[in-house]
Amino acid sequence: MKDILAELEHRRTEARLGGGQKRIDAQHEKGKLTARERIELLLDEDSFEEYDMFVAHRCTDFGMEKQRPYGDGVVTGWGTINGRIVYVFSQDFTVLGGSVSATHAQKICKIMDMAVQNGAPVIGINDSGGARIQEGVDSLAGYGEVFERNVMASGVVPQISLIMGPCAGGAVYSPAMTDFIFMVKDSSYMFVTGPDVVKTVTNEVVTAEELGGATTHTRKSSVADGAFENDVEAIAEVRRLVDFLPLNNREKPPVRPFFDEPGRIEDSLDTLVPENANTPYDMKELILKVADEGDFYEIQENFAKNIITGFIRLEGQTVGVVANQPMVLAGCLDIDSSRKAARFVRFCDCFEIPLLTFVDVPGFLPGTGQEYAGVIKHGAKLLYAYAEATVPKVTVITRKAYGGAYVVMSSKHLRGDVNYAWPTSEIAVMGAKGATEIIHRGDLGDAEKTAAHTKSYEDRFANPFVAAERGFIDEVIQPRSTRRRVSRAFAALRGKKLQTPWKKHDNIPL
Ligand code: HXC
After folding, report:
1. Residue 202: strand, helix, or coil
2. Is the Cβ atom of 130 under 6 angstroms away from ligand 1?
3. Ligand 1: which atom is nearest the Cα of residue 30?
């Protein structure tokens, strides 16, 4: 028995060494942690239960039968994050470059199946040279099996991808179908075709970092939701995110102890909106002042900054926030901001996370650039997402809510539950100047008359009261009491149940 146990330990030690000390050192030299070190940091201490440690590939081509390392380039299992279960796979670049063989893919599939059956998130740590070249189509089949599971798990359990090394070719499509992608600056990249192919086909010269690094994907393409300085920071932030999320679509988001007064009054909010309607102000200030303990987890912070998306807690409960940002493009909606917010709204709706919307929107961004690129379809995504969402929806209009954008931004007309407005709100088809230029075009040459028309339009519509008269606004509230009003609104909506007609699935404009 002693020998048998010693043999087990011997095999375990060998498996834990992955591709060997030399390759581990090389991994460290690149500023990267190993697959196991990443898991250790991600999960609560001693909570990791590993599966399939001794799995080895079955390939016999190209001399592969001579190197059959334990684990086959991916470490899989489950553990806890602050006591809550998550399933994990972490690709081991030290073993055959973390490349994906049929058995490597089977290990990932096993974890995904268990996560769905047991209702727990899947966190995938990607660091791989892609399809195991020696295995050919077996490897592609493995990817296909993973893709199918990504889709089946979508909306059932949260799926989070950490990109911590290469992720190229078709391999990018597994993370692409997960809910959140986080990258590490300077040590990770994602692209469908690499710089060499790009050079051959299009003659463009571009580095891997420029083509698919963390900065590119968080600022230009919006493929990634966040970029971090190193592995440690990225993993710590994923732990923070998981704390906001429910484990699956049948559970409510977690309720955390909170140390903030739900009725906290913020006098400074009474002067947040400047006197001049065209002067910007920072909408993040409102979010931070409303959130429990000022804690805000922002998603896609560096992309389409004219809209802000992220998670806060109110009375310890997770709430998804969508807010126009007047500091950028005057807070107008455009293609990028509509896509960004629509995806966020749909994530929240999948996982029963209530939605809080702060509105200060002058309309959609005009121009051929937007129209040619399909702002009609992309803008419709956000409208669609809000309209279909059945989670509690509370909206606060702080200033402008003009035209179609007023309707889109979680208005009463899209099954908004509680719609508040600050007294500084202007709810109208458009601003007074634009309206005057259209309805009093004949008087445009007469400055005095035009000013009078503008003033009369402002007096009539540059306020929340016309909408309030019609019940489109439930209450005009004091800015300073926003946290209290919004917290109470969500508390009253905790039992909300709303059914949509049966359908196979919807057909959101894509
Ligand atoms: C088998 C691989 C591998 C792969 C790397 N290795 N990629 N083995 N299949 N895809 C092995 C290397 O042989 C090497 O083994 C070890 O991993 C480390 O690789 P290095 O090249 O030394 O590392 P580095 O210099 O850091 O370069 C990393 C890399 C490069 C840029 C990822 O390895 C590379 O270009 N690999 C091939 C990438 C690729 O073309 N993949 C297929 C893409 S198509 P030793 O024993 O020397 O340590 C694809 C399709 C998916 O993925 C489709 C899904 C539908």
Report:
1. helix
2. yes
3. 26
In CATH terms, the fold of domain 267-425+463-492 is: 2-enoyl-CoA Hydratase; Chain A, domain 1 (3.90.226)
Pocket lining: 316 vs ligand 1, CB cutoff 6 Å: no
Ligand 1 centre and the CA of 145: distance in Å? 21
Q: What angle do CA 465, 467, 468 make, to 5 degrees?
A: 60
Tens digit of each residue's pLDDT (9 = 90 or more) over 156-209: 999 999 999 999 988 999 999 999 999 999 999 999 999 999 999 999 999 999
Domain with CATH 3.90.226.10 in the chain: 2-242, 267-425+463-492
Reference 123, options 82, 167, 179, 169; nearest CA is 179
| Interval 66-111: pLDDT, tens | 899 999 999 999 999 999 999 999 999 999 999 999 999 999 999 9
51 alpha carbon – ligand 1 mean position (Å): 25
What is the Cα–Cα distance from 312 to 253, expressed in whole angstroms?
A: 12
Which residue, by CA, sits nearest to atom 53 of ligand 1?
A: 170
Distance CA 178, CA 89 (A): 14
The response to whether residue 100 sits with its C-beta less than 6 Å from ligand 1 reads no
Backbone φ and ψ of 178, nearest 5°: -90, 170
Rounded Cα distance between 9 and 229, Å, is 36
**Pocket of ligand 1, candidates 62, 99, 101, 193: which has the most ligand atoms within 8 Å of its Cβ, to mutate?**
99
Among 51, 39, 46, 155, smallest CA distance to 103 is for 51
Q: Sort strands 166-168 and 475-476 into parallel, antiparallel or unpaired.
A: unpaired
Residue type, 465: F
Strands (E), 39-94: 49-51, 74-81, 84-91
> For residue 473, how far is its CA from the centre of ligand 1 (angstroms)?
58
The tokens for 345 are 């709204």
Determine if ligand 1 sits within 6 Å of the CB of residue 24.
no
The model's pTM: 0.96
Residue nearest to atom 30 of ligand 1 (CA): 129
CATH number of the 2-242 domain = 3.90.226.10
Asked if residue 187 has its Cβ within 6 Å of ligand 1, the reply is no
* CB of 171 closer than 6 angstroms to any ligand 1 atom: yes
Identify the bridge partners of residue 401 per DSSP, sorted by sequence position.
361, 427
Most ligand 1 atoms within 8 A of CB, residue of 28, 103, 133 to mutate: 133
Task: Give which of 273, 261, 437 is closest to 358, Cα–Cα.
Answer: 273
ipTM of the complex: 0.97
